[in-house]
Write a structure and sequence with these properties.
Largest sheet: 9 strands, mixed
Helix content: 25-40%
Number of helices: 13
Bound molecules: S-adenosyl-L-homocysteine
Number of strands: 17
Radius of gyration: 21 Å
Length: 370
């Protein structure tokens, strides 16, 4: 397939989303990969803002309960101790949304470990100008720097957190056909975007799935692999410790997890691109493999519910509920249940940590996975 450079995305306004841009691109080069479609849609969507919370499209864990960020703050202190309490280090968050998680981490750590507070400088990895502005408001009074990606982080030890960041990164899909695994592409038929399949199979697809029935879908994210190996390199070189939380699965398997969410409900993935959030479940086997491939140690993945319980979420719930009205106690209980119950976020969401191999065991993870 010939590829001329795509037209600039700057024309994609908040009114039109990225439909025109994508149609133009398909007209020039033919059907595009799901990764290319997804990257454009995600960039457009986050550039529009008003995404999180009741008035937006979806709610994330830090927006559900302050306890999520508080426990991650305490976890960051233990990670800092594992790094021998460096006097200067960078606390980095990838995809910080509204900045709520970072605000909760800063509040908790400055109370619980003032020396952590003196040593830290905060760095946010965020591409959306609108979200940068929201983060600036949330984190007013704190010294924060923004980056497009990890490459511009200054020298020094790093503690990195990312909640629901990896799911926003582009994936590629392959469809099993009679001639092998062929890449699934996006075309436009003059009226709407439609899925299509590449004419020729892609070589070197995971042999473990050669028996998959025709029509099966297999996903792979080069972007996730690359970001995780970049994080892992930082962990070894600086040194650093990374904490990744997201919805996903533990073993690579066949299945279509591409999903769009708008107004708190699933939406068609190819319709009105740029107006709904487009994500895929994270393949934690791929994450672990990417981290190990550069020589770092991997902890987990552990289910979010179990991990938060190990960090003491029930104790914090009791503390917060003490002396509160019946109604407040119920609100606290319900929000924490949402984070830990298996039928809510407790089981689908997983937590994984990356560290240099000589580090002591990390809180919430029973053991390092060899
Ligand atoms: N962590 C937040 C928000 C998750 S939404 C929370 O838990 O509430 C995904 C976030 O990742 C948004 O801030 C979005 O702008 C950012 N993002 C998505 N793709 C990105 C990319 N490629 N580089 C940097 N940030 C990205």
């Amino acid at each position: 397939m010939s590829t001329s450079p795509p037209p600039p995305l700057a024309d994609a306004t908040t009114e039109t989303g990225c439909t025109d841009h994508l149609i133009e691109r398909i007209k020039r080069n033919g059907p595009i990969s799901i990764a290319a479609f997804m990257e454009t849609v995600v960039d457009t969507y986050y550039a529009r803002g008003n995404i999180f919370g009741r008035s937006g499209d979806f709610v994330t864990a830090p927006e559900i309960s302050q306890v999520f960020g508080e426990l991650i703050g305490l976890w960051c202190i233990t990670a800092w101790q594992c790094l021998d309490q460096p006097r200067d280090f960078h606390l980095v968050e990838c995809g910080p949304g509204r900045g709520t998680l970072m605000a909760d981490i800063i509040r908790t750590t400055s109370k619980a470990a003032p020396r952590f507070g003196y040593a830290v400088s905060v760095h946010l990895i965020e591409r959306s100008e609108k979200l940068r502005a929201e983060q600036e408001k949330t984190l007013m009074g704190h010294n924060v720097s923004w980056h497009e990606d990890l490459s511009t982080l200054p020298e020094g030890p790093v503690i990195l957190v990312a909640n629901e960041f990896l799911d926003a990164l582009p994936i590629t899909q392959y469809v099993k056909t009679s001639s092998g695994w062929c890449e699934r592409l996006v075309n436009h038929n003059g009226r709407e975007f439609v899925f299509t399949v590449a004419g020729l199979p892609t070589p070197n697809i995971d042999d473990a799935f050669h028996d998959a029935p025709e029509g099966s879908i297999l996903e792979h994210s080069t972007a996730v692999h690359n970001v995780v190996s970049d994080i892992s390199k930082l962990c070894i070189e600086r040194p650093g410790i990374g904490l990744l939380i997201d919805y996903g699965y533990v073993r690579t398997d066949i299945g279509d997890t591409l999903q769009a969410v708008k107004d708190h409900a699933y939406a068609p993935v190819l319709k009105a691109p740029g107006f709904s959030d487009l994500t895929a479940h994270v393949d934690f086997a791929l994450v672990s493999e990417a981290a190990r491939s550069v020589g770092s140690a991997v902890y987990g993945p552990v289910e979010q519910g179990l991990w938060l319980k190990r960090l003491g979420i029930k104790v914090r719930e009791a503390q917060l509920s003490d002396g509160k009205s019946k109604q407040d106690v119920e609100t606290i209980r319900a929000s924490i249940a949402r984070l830990i119950d298996p039928e809510a976020m407790g089981s689908l969401f997983k937590v994984l940590a990356i560290a240099p191999s000589h580090i002591a065991p990390l809180a919430g993870f029973e053991a390092k996975v060899k």
